Structure formats: C-alpha cells, structure tokens
Amino acid sequence: MPDPRRGKLLGELTDPLGRAGLRSGQAILVLILSAGIIYALIALKIVVIPILIALILASAAAPLILGLRRRGLSRTLATVIVFVGSLLVFGGIITAVVFAVSSQWGDLADSAVEGFGQLQDFVAGLNLPIDQGQIDDAQKAVVDYLTSASFGTSALAGVSVATQLITGLVLALVVLFYFLRDGDVIWHFFLRPFRGARLERGRRIGRTGVKVLGGYVRGTALVAAADTIGIGATLLFAGVPLALPLSVVVFVTAFIPLVGATAAGILAALVALVAKGPVVALIVVIAVVVVNQLEGNFLQPVVMGNSLKLHPLVILLALTIGTVLGGIVGAVLSVPIAAVGWSIIKVWNAPDPARPTA
Predict the structure, then answer these.
(1) How far is CA 86 from CA 37, 95, 250, in A?
(2) Angle at 290 (CA atoms; ends 287, 296), nearest 5 degrees
(3) What is the rounded distance in angstroms from the CA atom of residue 177 to the CA atom of residue 80?
(4) Which of 28, 172, 243, 314 is the most exposed place for a label (fewest CB within 10 A)?
(5) Is the pLDDT at 188 greater than 80, yes or no?
(6) Whole-number Å distance between alpha carbons of 263 and 273
(7) Has this prediction a pTM greater than 0.85?
(8) Domain range list for the chain
(9) Residue 307 carries which DSSP code?
C-alpha cells in the first residue's frame, strides 16, 4: 500500500515551486563550491600562476616539439633544444633592454626635469588658482614621503614581492620543462581512471585545449610583433629615448586585449612628450592609432582565425575578473583561459574534428 505521506512529499518536490527550490539549492551548492575553488586558487597563486604560464607556453611550443620528435630526436633532446633556445632569445632581449635603459636613463631624467619645468611654466601661464607655494609644498610632500619610514616599509614589501616573483619564475621554468617533455604523458596519466566515452571526451578536451592555447599565443605573438615593429620604428625615427624598452612594453601589453595596446601607446606618448615635446608626442599618438587600426581590422582576424571566438563583452568581463583576482598576470591569462573554457564547452559532447568519422 503506497505511503500517502511519501506521495505528498514527491508531489511537493515535483510541482513548479518544488522544482524551483531544488534548482535553487543546486545553484547555491555550485556557487559555494566555485567560491571555495577560487579562494584556494588565490591562496595558492604563487603556485597556480606559474603552472598556468608554463601550460600556455608549452601549448604554444607543442608543434615545434612534435616536429623535432618526428625527425627522430628524443623527447629530452627536443625539449632541451626548444627550452634552451627560448631562454637564449628571451635572455638576449632582457639584456638589450637593460643596457638600453642604463645608457639612456640619464638623458631621460634630464629631459623629465626640463619637461616638468616647462609644465610648471605652462600651468603658471593659465592663471589657475595654483601658486608656486602650493607646487613647492607638493614637491616637499613627495620628498618627505621618499625619505620617511613608510617608504622604507613599502620598499621592504617590494623586496618580498620580488622574492615571490623569483620563486614563481623558477617554478614556471621547471614546470615548463616537464610540460614540454612529458605533457602528453601527464595528461594520459590523469585520464587513466576513465573508460569509453569519458576517456574519449578527456582526450578531446586535451587536444582542444592545447590547440586553442597554442593558437592564441602564437597568433597574439605575431600581432604583437607587428605592433612592436610599427610603433618601435616610429619611436626610433622620432629619436624618442628608451625606444627599445618601450617596444618591449608594446609587445608584452599586446597580450592584454582591448586595453593593452592603448596603455602602451599612452606610455610611449608620455615619454615622447617629456623627452621631445608635444609635436613628437602627437606623431607617436598618430602612429599608435594607425597601427592599432591596421591590427584590429586586418591583421588580427587573419592571424588569430578561430583561436579567439569570444564576444568583446566576454573578453572585457574576463579581463576584469582576471585583473581583480590576479593583477596584471591575471589580466594576461584570463582571456586565453576563457577561450579554452568556451572551446571545451563546445566540444564536450561533439565529435573530435581531428579524427575521421566512419
């Protein structure tokens, strides 16, 4: 004989209000679990961020590694060639930037002092309600802060941050080496508990993730190189100090969609304004605008292809969330992670296009 109380309970759970309550409870549990995961990732960001960087770089270098292995090189030898070659390239760039900054910093400082004096004269000519005494007080406040204990405490905090950066860099290099050498083996290890359709889904996700990440990084690097050549050539032609370091800044910020190129252009224009005056700064601004338009309308759609099929609003939200959670590094990593997440959703139950169908 059926229990009437059980039937009543089932009825309450299956009516519209009951279904809404069940879905609300499930949504709350998902939100709690997501918040816990995000909190854990933030708490362990000194480990998580280097792993993510290593994963993205390994995905970008995957075709080169596979090409060397197809030519008969062992896993370790192919990895050493790519790894050491990349370190030599990046090390050479960093060394050139350091020498450029050290050789031109004195001239830039003198230009900055002269430019600040011109700015003072310009402000004084506007008859604003600001007298020389207020300007002197502001300068004195800056000097007092630089010589105070608070600045010393900030400097010690900066040393701690530098130590964390060095630790993260070393960890990223070690993880990158193993991802380059044994990335496929590591992924197959994680898929060992799965069988059948779940195993195929795991393999499909792995292939899609590497393809999208690698395509995004390689495409963005090509676009960033084009931006660097265009803007860097303008800076060199105009005689702007620190042209090489500013070109490197342009290349790095190109990995932050929507806002990166604008930020680099503003920085280059400010340096040109301080060092060479408003006419050269205007030339730099025009060059930045032209290069960005050529990139956005012609180069990026061709180079990026299907690597980044995200709506600009999604990119903006991803940048905002990444910046809040991880700062500048989070802004750089947020968009490729969002692109991979969307690609995985699309292929979750879809057949793998890389495999022939019967």
Answers:
(1) 33, 14, 20
(2) 135
(3) 8
(4) 28
(5) yes
(6) 15
(7) no
(8) 45-133+170-190, 201-358
(9) S
